[in-house]
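Narrative of accomplishments. A recurring question from our advisory board has been how the design workflow behaves on a single, concrete structure rather than in aggregate. To address it, we present the structure tokens for one chain from the evaluation set, followed by the sequence designed for it. No filtering or post-editing was applied between the two.
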């Protein structure tokens, strides 16, 4: 019987593997891809979609089409558990588990809901990216009848980009006033350093975003954000942006994980316990050198993951993953403004966004080309 390669997720770390999926099929291997959507959205352009800079078609890959066109099988559903001994994965849309000989996980991450006291309809997390489109539609619809209050909870890059792009959306597509509150915790962009923090804060304040620092949110839900000091703010739409955690499929399945719950991998992006399980992107914990949850590492993992999946099926040598050095950071603050930072160079303005837009479009154009 032909060996079976099973991929959980068609995200950033699987892009090269998907682009070359036909090479597995040509060697006689079966390939199946599990994903809860027929598309994969590029997270780096998600806030821009929220603000209206990009259309959904501009920032997504047609995963199902690529898989099927290249001879693979696409399963629409959410992977629930992995049984490494039986070598099978359960999926919510399938009656029977899906078997594998080699498994690769690009299962992504999620926004923790620890502060959410009620799962009400005004709450939109930044992941999955499609939720930002739903939030956009809701804000625009509400603004037809009344002034809208939007609360963004969190002080990191995701919160900053969402707040800035909600402001852009308000100016371009909303009929009545939209007030944006950004509850930044101790300090806005604290982990990114004072220079980035100052530039982002200055731009958002100039746009009229209300930034609340020095206090954390205690509870989110029921149309309110309650702070630890007792202050309460009404909100028609709430974005919890309190960081991300790896998909919890690995802890549910009893696989070895890092302290964050991500699949614990060695220098080959391979499970430290099961040599036929691999992973990349936000869902792994890279044991040799813990990595930030940024897309650049998933992109860098691409060729190594592709090589090692094929090598495992072919029973040949694996290749080590080297994370590389300092990476470029550019934040989209909406309205064509960005913050650029690499090494000692940090600046804000239209040039920063222009550079980000060029890089993002180049990346997505490259992989959207494989759909055609």
């Amino acid at each position: 019987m032909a060996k079976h390669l099973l991929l959980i997720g068609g995200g950033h770390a699987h892009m090269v593997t998907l682009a070359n999926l036909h090479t597995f099929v040509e060697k006689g291997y079966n390939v199946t891809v599990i994903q809860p959507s027929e598309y994969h959205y590029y997270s780096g352009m998600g806030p821009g979609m929220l603000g209206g800079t990009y259309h959904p078609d501009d920032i997504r890959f047609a995963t199902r089409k690529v898989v099927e066109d290249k001879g693979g099988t696409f399963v629409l559903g959410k992977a629930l558990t992995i049984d490494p001994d039986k070598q099978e994965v359960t999926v919510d849309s399938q009656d029977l588990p899906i078997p594998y000989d080699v498994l690769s996980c690009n299962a992504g991450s999620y926004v923790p809901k620890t502060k959410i006291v009620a799962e009400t309809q005004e709450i939109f997390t930044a992941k999955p990216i499609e939720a930002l489109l739903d939030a956009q539609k809701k804000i625009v619809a509400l603004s037809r009848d009344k002034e809208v209050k939007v609360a963004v909870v969190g002080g990191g890059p995701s919160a900053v980009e969402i707040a800035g792009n909600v402001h852009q959306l308000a100016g371009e597509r909303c009929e009545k006033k939209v007030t944006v509150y950004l509850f930044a915790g101790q300090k806005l962009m604290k982990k990114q350093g004072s220079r980035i923090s100052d530039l982002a804060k200055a731009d958002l304040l100039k746009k009229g975003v209300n930034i609340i620092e020095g206090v954390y949110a205690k509870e989110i839900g029921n149309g309110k954000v309650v702070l630890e000091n007792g202050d309460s703010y009404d909100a028609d739409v709430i974005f919890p942006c309190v960081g991300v955690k790896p998909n919890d499929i690995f802890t549910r399945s009893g696989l070895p994980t890092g302290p964050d719950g991500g699949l614990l991998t060695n220098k080959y992006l391979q499970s430290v316990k099961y040599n036929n399980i691999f992973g990349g992107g936000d869902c792994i914990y890279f044991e040799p050198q813990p990595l930030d949850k940024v897309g650049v590492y998933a992109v860098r993992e691409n060729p190594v993951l592709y090589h090692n999946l094929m090598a495992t099926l072919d029973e040949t040598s694996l290749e080590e993953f080297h994370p590389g050095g300092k990476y470029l950071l550019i934040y989209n603050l909406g309205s064509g403004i960005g913050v650029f930072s690499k090494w000692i160079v940090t600046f804000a303005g239209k040039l920063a966004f222009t550079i980000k837009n060029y890089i993002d479009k180049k990346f997505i154009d490259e992989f959207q080309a494989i759909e055609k």
